[in-house]
């Protein structure tokens, strides 16, 4: 379906047939341009697993669990791999831009698709608000620039990039990811050099024995290590973004499996490898909450430029997250609109195949959020920001549930078998769901993370009321999804 056909569809008042045609467009991915090549998809997949959760948040985890944080990342990494392989199996069965919400409609029901689409959209809007604000704060490290001005400039630039073409989005994301990857690989090589050659201020004391000599591998007990699982999982949020690119990948059947299969070594190198090297060069007792372990490590090595380097890397990580938010929010809103679960004007595309209205509305909300954050950085806003974590995990839950239902149907011969089957099948997905359930329970136990759960019932009520209103106005949207 072309953009002109979409506009004609908007004028169609025949009800069910119009909704059905739109849903078919969402399924086929028509209207978008397949402008994302292998190089860009690979780096989007790599960059999605590397964010401020590693560069900044790991300091809190080290302070809380010591070297055993490495084990927490390893366990969580296995679960993330199964989540991504489950998503990969679904993508090879039917690669669509709507991704999670499309699968939710097909395998769970119309309400699940509605909830997933709007929740994932909210996740990226809120994430965009926090990240663009953070990026503006990082700019003050070098220049005395008003925070609101930096936030405005960043938002306008990223908005423009996302409207020009998906290829330009992919190119910008490629270079953002390249900066993050280069920084981590550089840190690993420097630490390896210190351990083997003994140069820098930390050369005389650096030793792999730091991983167990400073109070043991579990210096604060296994319980504290378990409590870090929530922040570890939060660090991996956005790894599923590669699924949203399915409808705009030049060769999704080839590119996406390759990108997903890189998950184990990405986690092994960028998280586990980096932490092993840093904690071998600098004892974990030197790290503290609120300070980037990368900055702390550079300082202990006697490298004064380290703080500036890490600040630049974290700036690019924040901008990368904002860029991803601009991209995904417009696609999610268009998918909802094509299925009759959102306003019809979100279906409109630019000539270059980008969702104009959805991206514009999302960018405007991000700017409002920046202004709110600047004016009232108090508790009310913190509630909204903390909700981003639980809403992001909802996408993982939906992926796993949809995978279980798809695998059962495909094994019975009711649906075609995917060319990229997940190892472990249904059992792996069920165990991953149980692990996520454990993380949510731990969030409820931890008073600092408990706030993330408070907003969830409120959002559920809002969605429930909105869906009831939708059904009363347009029952065909739900009726078609039920028959799929």
Automatic annotation (TrEMBL):
This is Amino acid permease. Keywords: Amino-acid transport, Cell membrane, Membrane, Transmembrane, Transmembrane helix, Transport. The chain crosses the membrane at residues 43-62, 68-87, 107-127, 147-169, 181-200, 220-242, 263-282, 302-322, 354-374, 380-404, 425-445, 451-470. It is found in: Cell membrane. Residues 1-20 are annotated as: Disordered. The keyword Cell membrane applies. It comes from Streptomyces beihaiensis. PANTHER family: GABA PERMEASE, L-ASPARAGINE PERMEASE. InterPro entries: AA-permease/SLC12A_dom, Amino_acid_permease_CS. It comes from the Bacteria. Residues 41-473 form the Amino acid permease/ SLC12A domain. The keyword ATP-binding does not apply. It is a multi-pass membrane protein. Pfam families: AA_permease. Belongs to the amino acid-polyamine-organocation (APC) superfamily. Amino acid transporter (AAT) (TC 2.A.3.1) family.
């Amino acid at each position: 379906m072309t953009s002109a056909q979409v506009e004609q569809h908007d004028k169609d008042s025949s009800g069910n047939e119009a909704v059905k045609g739109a849903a078919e467009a969402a399924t086929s991915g028509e209207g978008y341009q397949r402008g994302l090549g292998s190089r860009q998809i690979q780096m989007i997949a790599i960059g999605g697993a590397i964010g401020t959760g590693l560069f900044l948040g790991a300091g809190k985890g080290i302070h809380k669990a010591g070297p055993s944080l490495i084990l927490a990342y390893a366990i969580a990494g296995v679960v993330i791999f199964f989540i991504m392989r489950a998503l990969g199996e679904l993508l090879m069965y039917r690669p669509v831009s709507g991704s999670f919400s499309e699968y939710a409609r097909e395998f769970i029901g119309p309400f699940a698709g509605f909830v997933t689409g709007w929740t994932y959209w909210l996740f990226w809007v809120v994430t965009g608000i926090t990240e663009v604000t953070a990026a503006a704060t990082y700019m003050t490290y070098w220049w005395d620039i008003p925070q609101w001005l930096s936030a405005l400039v960043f938002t306008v630039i990223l908005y423009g990039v996302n409207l020009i073409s998906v290829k330009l989005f992919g190119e910008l994301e490629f270079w953002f990811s390249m900066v993050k990857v280069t920084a981590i690989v550089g840190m690993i090589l420097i630490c390896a050099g210190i351990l083997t050659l003994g140069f820098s201020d930390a050369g005389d004391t650096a030793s792999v024995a730091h991983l167990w000599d400073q109070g043991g591998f579990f210096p604060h007990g296994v319980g504290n290590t378990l409590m870090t699982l929530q922040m570890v999982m939060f660090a991996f949020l956005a790894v599923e973004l590669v699924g949203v690119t399915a409808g705009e990948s030049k060769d999704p059947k080839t590119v996406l499996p390759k990108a997903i299969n890189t998950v184990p070594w990405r986690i092994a190198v960028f998280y586990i490898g980096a932490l092993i090297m840093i904690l071998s060069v600098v004892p974990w007792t030197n790290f503290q909450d609120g300070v980037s372990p990368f900055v702390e490590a550079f300082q202990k090595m006697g490298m004064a430029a380290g703080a500036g380097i890490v600040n630049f890397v974290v700036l690019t990580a924040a901008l990368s997250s904002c860029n991803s938010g601009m991209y995904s929010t417009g696609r999610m809103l268009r998918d909802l609109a094509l299925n009759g679960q959102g306003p019809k004007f979100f279906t409109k595309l630019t000539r270059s195949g980008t969702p104009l209205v959805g991206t514009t509305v999302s960018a405007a909300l991000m700017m409002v959020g920046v202004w709110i954050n600047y004016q009232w950085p108090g508790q009310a806003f913190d509630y909204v920001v903390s909700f981003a974590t639980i809403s992001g995990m909802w996408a993982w839950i939906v992926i796993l549930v949809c995978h279980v239902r798809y695998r059962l149907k495909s094994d019975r011969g009711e649906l075609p078998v995917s060319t990229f089957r997940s190892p472990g099948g249904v059992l792996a997905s069920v165990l991953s769901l149980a692990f996520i359930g454990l993380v949510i329970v731990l969030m409820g136990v931890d008073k600092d993370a408990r706030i993330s759960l408070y907003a969830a019932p409120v959002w559920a009520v809002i969605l429930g009321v909105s869906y009831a209103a939708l059904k009363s106005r347009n029952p065909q949207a739900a009726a078609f999804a039920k028959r799929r």
